[in-house]
Design brief:
Metallo-B-lactamas; Metallo-beta-lactamase, Chain A; 294 residues; 13 strands; NDM-1-like; 8-stranded mixed sheet; MBL fold metallo-hydrolase
Length: 294
Amino acid sequence: MAQQLALTDADLAPTERGSDGLQSFAPDLAFRTFSIVNVVFFGRPQSGEDWVLIDTGLPTSANAIRTVAEHRFGPDRPPAAIIMTHAHFDHAGSVERLAEEWDAPVYAHPLEMPYLQGHAAYPPADPLVGGGMMALLSPLFPRSPVNVGERLHMLPIDHSVPGMPGWRWLHTPGHAPGHISLFREADRTLIAGDAVVTTAQESVYAVMTQRAEMHGPPAYFTPNWIEAEEAVRQLAALEPETIITGHGLPVRGAGARARLHELAENFRAVAVPQGASYDLNPAVPGKSDNDAYR
């Protein structure tokens, strides 16, 4: 199992929990953990302004996500966009249903589009890396593609984020070919997806207790550790003040940045499991699309 880069209570970002279970960590950012994954809501509550959903949780989370969104932004207010960090089952489980019910556009990196257009499935999980019960159970996790049809769009090539002024997307592959993270320079807030996570997602105990540590991407679903290392280095270079990840609690400040730099500098020792092997040739779109979106 990967070594620990422990975070303390002082490194956790302060949050304000609402009656709907949402935890706000900025005036326009809140998240809720649905089972094992965080879903992020961007937009000021009850402001009448556009809002954006980042990732869609598990297939069982659609009703709860819709209820939370109505409570925060008002009824009959669909999101301006659904942004996908990637299309693994725990992040894209409800995207088909929500996109159809809201008639909302879905944006993703072109390298992730085969998994959102029904064209390709991810390679099988590797239960022998990372250790822990979640890793052992990973072959049971769904990996079939979803299909959001004509509502699916490529992210803007200028790296802007639809519906999120002041944000830019970064290609942070490794955990998935078209994985992206989002960054706002004004307050150095990072939405990292699964490029890094703040809990040991391979361990049921860590998932249940949300024990905080700076951690590489979930090992059992990470096909390319070379790209994953470069993605972490890219994120550390941003010097983020606040970090929200796909799994675990949001963190902030000098301590969190120090652990992120340690992860980047010692990635192969602390994040890459021994004996990691994986299919390095998942289905991807054409090379021209890939080059244009680097």
